Amino acid sequence: MADVVQYRMERMLPELDDLEKEELFTRRELAEIVKQRRNFEFRLKRPSPLKEDYLAYIDYETKVDKLRRLRKKAKLPEREDNEETKKKKRKRKSVSDFAGVRRILDIYRLAVTRFTGDLELWFRYLDFCKERRNGRIKEVLNKVIGFHSKQPSVWIYKAAWEFDNYSNVEAARNTMLQGLRFCKNSEDLWLEYLRMELTFLNKLKARKVALGEDEGSLVLDKISADEQQWKSENKDLYMPLNEERENDENNEGSDIEESKSRKKVDKLQEVGFGVIKTIYSEAVKALPSSFTLRKRFLEILKSINLAKSGEMGEEVLSDMKRDFSTEPEYWDWLAKFEYNPASTQEETGEEITFSCMGKAIQVYEDAIQVLPSAKMFKHYAKFLMGAVALLVGDNETSLDNQSASYVSRLLGLYQKADTIGYTDEELACEHISLYLQLGRVDEARRLAHNLCCGKFPNSAKVWVLWASIEMKHSTRDLISSSKDKLLSIFELVKDGLTRLSISEAESLWVMALKFFASQKHYFDMLVEVAVTSLIKYRGSDEGFSLSSIIVNFVLQKDGIAHARVMYKRFTALPHPGLVLYRTCIELETNLASNGDKTGLENARKLYFSALQTYDQDSSLWRDYWLMETKMGTSKTASDVSWRARKTLKDSSALSLADL
């Protein structure tokens, strides 16, 4: 290994001599460069070099070469006396001018040879070759295609390189067609092929325009109605580049030339239409179930100016309706296709905006008739809410007639979904929230009550929403918050908590504990409900520890004495959770570190109790041992270490060096 490294280092001598001769680096800097290169070379010669080793070496060499170029550029004005010597010296290339790039390419070659499956590394290699205009890029492209022929991005890269750098349309087209044989099911490859063909046609169009044989572009310019009207009124100001004003006698000749030009335009547009139609039909055959492919084809159609592009768009829409009319996503997309708030607001007036909204709403109405489902109702409701938000803007306190009609339609939609049985938990919560946003609190309360007692008795979200409404309503008028009101809220919360599991009712538990924290009688009753739930669900610790939350509430509210009483009650229940034990141990160890004499003894009792149930938890043993080393004696610490080694079945799970 050392011999190979030494050989590679000796090959750098001509480059280093040249750098010193050109006075681009000092001897000290060159010694540091040699040292770094030697380290990198040894890293690459390890039995299993990492990808990061190659990238670090490439990064270092790139920075060195960049510094060399900057210093050489800075020295040119000092060396060059006149223009002739300047040109001669620019043509001359020394060894150091290409040695750095050659070394980086060599490192990339070694890297991709070792990590042939890393596509990102291959693309970095290609980008470097492209950036430095190195002729090796063609060889690298052929290699990466050999290893990754099933990757569409590789074929797209090669076709783009042929098309952009060499304007070789035939080679780019052949690359795309070959790629489609390997990756027939790639949407990106089909669409990039279409874009490439349209770009080529647009270049032909631009060439004809430059020669004065044509005008316009295949790219559809989005211009406002006022600009279009001004252009039509001032057509005389626009002339082809090769046309001059002549007398009225020559009008006939110009008309003939114009008709010929129009025929050429039509022919070019027909070719473009044929390309789109052919590629679309083949792509649909290869990907008949791809909805996004059709959408992206339509986006391309909308952005170009071709003969019969409107007919082609209608054909695509017809095919989509035939193939995807049973999917809610199709109807949602179709409605948004009819109306796009972002573009409509900028390009058209209010009347046209409302007209487009009407078309979109009609699509949604047809959708819920053809394909009634909870998902379809959600899409419709989301659109209406977006329309209301767009019309209302920042003024949320008042609604105009149009906004009010959309709100009324939205409420009717929620009621219709409920009537025909397609209301799910999410729609129900949205319905309640809409009433709250409109300030119709009583209707929101009635709806939440009906849903909790009817269709969604086991929905945590609906219970939380109902409880929050009642609690907020009661706290607005604290004076009138009578015992009957508090009792009704407690009964509501209790009903929800008994219907739901502890993990499902996490938000409801936290909300109830905060609300009744200052009401001792109701808080104690809530603790009784918690005890019943913990016995029922055997103190489950799956993501939420109810007993730990209550202990912390009691600690903050009543102090350590009451907290100890509370956690002793919970630990006496069947199968108390490990999170509860850890919470109580942390509480006691904090007190012990602050000088509480009983804290350490209580912590030991908690560890003893916890390890009776969770004796195979290595982290619990480790924490116990660490506590004894910090607060106990060497004897107690060694006793814990001995017990851990004896009890644990899997000794490898515990870092015995710590014990």
Descriptive notes:
It is a single chain. The chain is mainly α and 659 residues long. It has a domain of 100 residues. It has 32 helices and no strands. α1 runs antiparallel to α3. The longest helix has 36 residues. It is flat and about 95 Å long. The chain starts with a helix and ends in a 12-residue tail after the last helix.
Name its key features.
659 residues; mainly alpha; flat
Summarize the topology.
Layout (H helix, E strand, L loop, with lengths): L1 H9 L2 H9 L5 H18 L6 H29 L3 H9 L3 H20 L4 H13 L5 H11 L4 H15 L2 H14 L4 H24 L14 H9 L17 H36 L4 H12 L6 H16 L3 H11 L2 H7 L2 H21 L3 H19 L8 H20 L4 H13 L3 H13 L6 H16 L7 H17 L6 H10 L4 H18 L8 H13 L1 H12 L6 H16 L3 H17 L4 H14 L2 H14 L12
Low-confidence spans = 236-249, 341-348
Structural class: mainly alpha
Rg from Cα: 38 Å
**How much helical structure, as a percent, in the residues?**
over 70%
Compact overview of the structure:
The protein is mainly α and 659 residues long.
